[in-house]
Amino acid sequence: MSTNLADPTRLATPPTFQSVSLPRQIKNGLATALVWGAFLIAVIPLVWVLYTVIQRGFPVVLDGDWWQKSMSGLLARQQGGGAYHAIYGTLVQGLICAVISVPIGIMVAIYLVEYGGRSKLAKATTFMVDILTGVPSIVAALFIYTVWITYFGLGRSAFAVSLALVLLMVPVIVRTTEEMLKIVPDELREASYALGIPKWKTIVKIVIPTALSGILTGIMLALARVMGETAPVLVLAAYAPFINYNLFDGPMASLPLMMVNERNNPTQAGFERIWGAAITLVVLITLFNLLATVISRALAPKTK
Amino acid sequence: MNDPVVAKRPAGSGASGAERGVAAAPHASEAPIPPTPEAPETPKAPHVRPGDRIFRGLATGSGVFIVVLIGAIGLFLILQAIPSLGLDNVNFLTSREWNTTDPSNLRFGILDLTLVTVVVAVVALLIAMPIALGIALFLTQYAPRNLARPFAYMVDLLAAVPSIVFGLWGLFVLGPVLFPFSEWLIANLGWIPLFAKGNVNVQLGGTIFTAGIVVAVMILPIITAVSREVFERTPTMHIEGAIALGATKWEVVRTTVLPFGKAGYVSASMLGLGRALGETIAVAIILSTATSSFGWSLFDGGSTFASKIALAAPEFNDARSAGAYIAAGLVLFVLTFVVNAIARSIVAGHKEYE
């Protein structure tokens, strides 16, 4: 008996793998250090950029005028004024873009998941969505420029900017929606069909609501990404220091455009406004990202 | 189906079993009838409802729209570029000249733009690739389980910072910090063409060196995200097998994770390269315009395709001048198209591992 009790303890002591040879230990330690180092290196610019933006922009946006006034009537070197007009422009251009992109993006994803299967068109569409993801924003802007301004002879406007942003937003929405629709269990669809419900109604009333939290998250993230785009506003809109409600005509400001514009302003006021606009944009984008997280948490289907 | 019928009958009205049976009988006889005609019909012709047809049409149409859209981008850019290319007085591909101020005497070539674009992108890629590999390994293999998600979120945050903010940071903050380092490189390693004194004032920081670092930071999240996804799919059996053989952590990674994820990592880097080639506003803000052409030094200034177009965009007044920039945009489009297509085909070729 006593030997039996002692046996497991003896067997449990690993006889061979006790020690790892020194070179292997060194290599392992080195690799661990490098991998941790890589992560820390990546965190440096993030912290540094955010620190710069907050340190230089925060005092500017503390002023209540910043959120309530435009630059109307101010000289470039005069301090003060606000970014109201640019915030309005950024939000409106993003909103118009979302109104156009969301239905297109979701329908493409529905096609890919529910109808396309392995057809050639589905493969081509997937490939083109991938390509569209990689299209540089300046090329998207040039495309809208040739169509909207050269061929249709229309002027630069906020709406043209929104159209260019659509090209950048649609692929992101397709990607995320596609992923979400794929996760929806087939049993749900089958149960719906078994009740005699048409396919389209199944998709609209069963599949999409199930995937809704993920889809909305994707939309918010896409919107956040699109709002910071600068190339389209440079090509397709002119800066206005005042608020312009007309989407189809005349210059309209947006936060990126305001920054580009103020960069040519060598005075202290210009410097302040650059970083004020920068922090406003970062805050706006962070808000949308946070909203995405909140939505995905709140609407996520309860699995357990 | 039966229950409501039974329930409707007033209770205690002396409804005997027989009476119920009578009441149920017509119903029971009704019930089997509908399936009888339908049953043989279903395999023959499934009835397609108009709602289905419309919805299917909309979805398919959206798919077609995307395909057509890419074609349209290429087509419209070509159509708009051709007239200007015809008016070009120098060779478009081999000239380093870029002068579109006089639309009646257009002189534009993309050699300089191509070189600067490629060098900025390659510098960015060389910096970002090893770091992204490290982060992806860190997040999938090394980071403490409960911290991996927040850490991954931090790296993703880099992607949320707008590129114009990175540009301003690169110009106003990073550039001045890099200046002594750049100066040291020029003084001590200047005999290597890569570190030779460039064609812009280093003190201003607007060099390919600064731009490359900033673009590297910007493409880091995409490379990390894609590699991470691939590394996460390493079969647990492989990892466990390696551990069972007594491998150290690094040996596990080297023998299982890296061979498995190699293709994914390469394609992730290609995606990063695609982004780097097309990065616009950050480069446009940072890179100083140079008067002389690019001379293979990291401390040169100049323009990439994207930054050239972005800086000139507000002055697109003449269709002929604008056409020159659109021709440059077309080249950029083709360049990123090819790089992205290669990246995707690598991923597609390795689908079987997933």
Automatic annotation (TrEMBL), chain A:
Family in the record: Belongs to the binding-protein-dependent transport system permease family. CysTW subfamily.
InterPro entries: MetI-like, MetI-like_sf, Phosphate_PstA, Phosphate_transprt_permease
Keyword Zinc carried by entry: no
Keywords: Cell membrane, Membrane, Phosphate transport, Transmembrane, Transmembrane helix, Transport
Ranges that cross the membrane: 33-54, 91-113, 125-148, 154-174, 206-227, 274-295
One of the protein's GO biological processes: phosphate ion transmembrane transport
Origin organism lineage: Bacteria, Bacillati, Actinomycetota, Actinomycetes, Pseudonocardiales
Membrane topology: Multi-pass membrane protein
Pfam families (alphabetical): BPD_transp_1 (PF00528)
Function: Part of the binding-protein-dependent transport system for phosphate; probably responsible for the translocation of the substrate across the membrane.
Domain ABC transmembrane type-1: from-to ranges: 87-296
GO cellular component labels: plasma membrane
GO terms assigned for molecular function: phosphate transmembrane transporter activity
This protein's name: Phosphate transport system permease protein PstA
Species, as recorded: Lentzea guizhouensis
Compartments where located: Cell membrane
